[in-house]
Amino acid sequence: MNHIFSFFVLGGIIAAAINGKIDVVTTAAMTAAGSAVQRAIALIGIVGLWMGIARVAEKSGLIDKLSHLIAPLFSWLFPSIPKNHPALGCILMNLSANILGFGNAATPFGLKAMQELQKLNNDPDTASEAMCTFLAINTSSVTLIPTTLIALRASAGSKNPSEIVGTVLFATTCSTITAIISDMIIRNLYRRRKYN
Amino acid sequence: MTSEMLGESFSWFIPGLIFIVFLYGHIKGVRIFEVFIEGAQEGFIMAVKLIPYLIGIYISVGIFRESGAVDILVKLLSPILKVIKAPTDALLLSIIRSLSGPAALSMTMEIFDTHGPDSFIGRLASTMLGSSDTTFYIIAVYFGSVGIRKTRYSVLLGLLADFASFVASVYIVRKVFL
């Protein structure tokens, strides 16, 4: 993340200089800082709501039950998470919300899952393998029904707004499979480098 | 199933989920209000802790996007476009998609307005938007929320998935709609 951060900032400033619009950098930085806080404020309410609900689900044992249900699939994807750990239930809730296109509900469950994964992490400064796998699946965006997208196409006057459901499903499956396979390969490469 | 029926059943999802969680909690004798507040409090603290991470990611992405660095990147990558026969706008959208959700959305709307949602590029943009996510934002927020600084190979994995979604979108849209 450190390299990416400096790449964006330094690359951006150099590009602005080349393009002869160096003043854009100042405005962009100021505006972005403002909208980051706005975004965070909006997030407080949504995260509060879903974390409250998640806590109720957790206390009642619902999340444990869910974790139990999907243990076989997840023990293959996340070998480092113990069976029936609440992290699995949170990951399931996050992925289901993502699959159905509810981005707002997905983020709080994802954050909750990260919290649970952090409890299992030996080095609290560094991402664990399970976290990398979770984020790989998450950023590759497993979408079954792109709800927002269909609405957007309809409002732009498309004759058949949902015609892209099939192509989205194909592309998202490809990217998720790529994410899972490359996660397994890179994880092993990292392990080897650690032991040598 | 038609998309309207799907939309209809979706509007039931969140109310249904909340109903089941509360009902189950009630049956199991959970003190729902207290527990809910406990969770919400945790959520509040987490969201506040996220602010510095959000500021960092927004500023770096903002500078990178507005400076025209993305256009330079697109120019550098244009040989790849020739190989997979994709329009330049599609690559631009794909890069913006991993950086900023709202920016990707407004670029897609702009493509819809200029070319129409049922044009080749309109369908391609739709497919790309639906099949990828805001990689950098997710990585920063998720790791930031638990204070992880060393993200190891996460960014690489995210970018690989984004690239796969780009190539797959171009392939399938050409195949299905051309």
Write a structural description.
The complex is a heterodimer of chains A (196) and B (178). Chain A is an all-alpha fold. Chain A folds into two domains: 1-60, no CATH class; 66-196, no CATH class. Chain A has helices at 2-18, 23-59, 62-77, 86-99, 103-120, 129-139, 147-155, 165-195. The longest helix of chain A is centred in the first third of the chain and has 37 residues, at 23-59. Chain A is globular. Chain A starts with a helix and ends with a helix. With 178 residues, chain B is mostly helical. In chain B, helix 6 packs antiparallel against helix 7 (120-131). The two termini of chain B are 25 Å apart. At the A-B interface, helix 1, helix 2, helix 5, helix 6 and helix 7 of A face helix 1, helix 2, helix 3, helix 6 and helix 7 of B.
Q: Return the domain count of chain B.
A: 1
Major protein interface: A-B, 105 and 102 residues
In N-to-C order, the SSE pattern of chain B is HHHHHHHHH
Which stretches of chain B are low in confidence, meaning pLDDT under 50 for 5 or more residues running?
none
**Which segments of chain A are poorly predicted (pLDDT under 50) over 5 or more consecutive residues?**
none
The structure class of chain B reads: mainly alpha
Keywords:
heterodimer; A: 196 residues; mainly alpha; 2 domains; 8 helices; globular; B: 178 residues
